[in-house]
Amino acid sequence: MSELIDRVPKQIFLAGQWRDAADGSRFGVQDPGNERQLCEVADTQDADVREAIEAAVAAQDEWAATAPRERGEILRRAWQLMTDRAEDTARLMTLEMGKSIEESKAEVTYAAEFFRWFSEEAVRVDGRYGRNPAGAGRMLVSKHPVGPCVLITPWNFPLAMGTRKLGPAIAAGCTMIVKPAQLTPLSMLNLAALLKEAGLPDGVLSVLPTTSASRVVSPALEDPRIRKMSFTGSTEVGRKLVEQCAPNLQRMSMELGGNAPFLVFEDVSLDDAVTGAVTAKMRNNGESCVAANRFHVHSSIADEFVRRLTEEMSALKVGHGTEDGVKVGPLISADQRDKVIELVDDALARGARATTGGKPLDGNGFFYAPTVLTDVPPDARILREEVFGPVAPVTTFDTEDEAVRLADDTEFGLVAYLFTRDLDRAIRVGERLSTGMVGINTGLVSNAAAPFGGVKQSGFGREGGNEGIEEYLDVKYMALALKE
Ligand SMILES: O=CCCC(=O)O
């Protein structure tokens, strides 16, 4: 294991070169499974940020002028390298983030897929040519890289949330400054090394690990030459970043918090619904913005659904992510576990009942038992706040209208899941729900080929799919007079 950590460069990746922080300062990275320090990483300082901004600006025009095929080939090689090294990359991720090896491997595949997808999109940026309505001239519409970008990535998917931003930025021809999460910088530093190996030219990318997000992000957003910011994280932080982008009107993509409802109608196959529920809840330890946050089940099948879900959840092996057979690793930090404890205790105090779990696990590491809560009252905080942990609160409904009302009774609008065998109802309800994404008879919507993103307080912009690259492109229209 320590060999894996030793291989990761623990410096700043500044415009293609590895460097210590300007003043030599470093910060510790912890293993959440045993609260031990794994290593130290360079802590970016003001002077480093200034250099990264200048480098991103200086490299922009030349990078934008490279052939799309060339950028696509870099992404394709990066996909291949990630795929070849999936095992080690997954182990590294488990060490710094905690999730099981199985989950980390799934993330590596998912992350690599964004590179493959955007390697194919790089050569498909289109435009149009047409007569103007008066017939007297022509209209030429083309797309161009938006310019240097600041990309801010979270700790929960330290690789995939990076490739989902870097992939389209590279495909479009934008230079990038990446600020990885303080808790999980290693996966991103590893990715920077891999991209260099895949042929990404020096100057195009800087990765700035830091203990102070504002030290990196604020000067970049205050600089009008930086033209785009993409953020995955909490709604609270997202709002502040929107304010920071206002003076220079940088383009923004905001992938923010969720509070996903999971609707189970009375006609389902309970086997399928419970399998989907476990996936939607427990992927990534429940530490995901698309994790099902609350289960609304038709009252005629609720008892049986709870019984089966309890059986499945209590059978999940909890432990250090690197151990064999472990399905649920530690949560990322003491703070994150405290939040889970607080929300579950609040629900229990208001009358909910835990049919399994309901408490943290003793010993080292930030472990919390997979939990099912039933009889959850409408005023329980857990129905309104994103729990980001392995807890499934269940409530009931009697009619389709009530199900939709409950599902939409939230400020968030990222994803909803619904299970029914009635196709008409699936489409009808799916279209009514106020979310950017809907999973129909599946607990997993994430896919590099699909537009991922939310509405309401879950943000705006789409990542992945054909839509993903558009976030990194500006549209130019040229009016052409024509003497006919
Ligand atoms: O946590 C946010 C993203 C999760 C995903 O892409 O599946």
What topology emerges from the helices and strands here?
Elements: H1 2-7, E1 12-14, E2 17-19, E3 26-31, E4 36-42, H2 46-64, H3 68-84, H4 86-97, H5 101-121, E5 128-131, E6 137-145, E7 149-152, H6 160-172, E8 176-179, H7 185-197, E9 205-207, H8 213-222, E10 228-232, H9 235-245, E11 251-255, E12 260-264, H10 270-282, E13 292-298, H11 302-314, H12 334-349, E14 353-356, E15 371-374, E16 391-397, H13 400-408, E17 412-413, E18 415-419, H14 423-432, E19 437-440, E20 455-456, E21 459-460, E22 473-481
Parallel strand pairs: 7-8, 7-10, 8-9, 10-11, 12-13, 12-18, 13-16, 15-16, 18-19
Antiparallel strand pairs: 1-2, 3-4, 5-6, 6-22, 11-21, 14-15, 17-20
Helix pairs in contact: 2-8, 3-5, 3-6, 4-5, 4-7, 5-6, 10-11
The structure holds 4-oxobutanoic acid (SSN).
4-oxobutanoic acid binds next to loops.
Task: Kindly describe this structure.
- By secondary structure, the chain is an alpha/beta fold.
- The protein folds into two domains: 1-256 and 458-477, Aldehyde Dehydrogenase, Chain A, domain 1, CATH 3.40.605.10; 260-440, Aldehyde Dehydrogenase, Chain A, domain 2, CATH 3.40.309.
- It contains 14 helices and 22 strands.
- It has helices spanning 2-7, 46-64, 68-84, 86-97, 101-121, 160-172, 185-197, 213-222, 235-245, 270-282, 302-314, 334-349, 400-408, 423-432, and strands at 12-14, 17-19, 26-31, 36-42, 128-131, 137-145, 149-152, 176-179, 205-207, 228-232, 251-255, 260-264, 292-298, 353-356, 371-374, 391-397, 412-413, 415-419, 437-440, 455-456, 459-460, 473-481.
- A hairpin with a 2-residue loop joins strand 1 (12-14) and strand 2 (17-19).
- The longest helix has 21 residues, at 101-121.
- The chain is globular and about 70 Å long.
- The chain starts with a helix and ends with a strand.
- The model has no long low-confidence stretch (mean pLDDT 97).
- Bound molecules: 4-oxobutanoic acid.
- 4-oxobutanoic acid binds at residues 156-157, 288-290, 446, 452.
